[in-house]
Amino acid sequence: MCDICEESMLDKREQESRRGFTLIELLLVILIISILAALVVPRFANRSEQARVSAATVDVRANLATALDLYELDNGGYPTTTQGLEALLREPMGSPRPRNWNGPYVRGGVPKDPWGNPYVYRSPCNRPDCDYELLSFGPDGVEGSDDDITSWDAEN
Q1: Within-domain flag for 21
Q2: What does the pLDDT look like over 65-83, one tens digit per residue?
Q3: Reported pTM
């Protein structure tokens, strides 16, 4: 065989081996990725909701609770429901006036819950043995449902 013929045959074999994936191979890869996604995505979705609940719990029972306790230490009482959580950012002008406001008590503004709703603050508390109540209505946004996150759950 001549040298040119051999080179031509080698080039042809290299081209065939580099042609790429067949349609069946691509469909098989897409099927495998789809099966993996069907198994993994629901697990991450549940983790995402758990993370939101944890973030709201930390806000209600630690971050905002600490800010409210500092306000109470400085001023001898918690802000009223009317003054709300805004009293942690700006000195309230309404009655009762804080006697030693040293805020702001939170940085960056009063946060919203992880579902984009404002936290609910009431003082005095409608429950016995608490000075205030702070809550998020949770994922469903409805007060009184099982998914509410409340400041008083930490006490029980």
Answers
A1: no
A2: 999 999 999 999 999 999 9
A3: 0.69
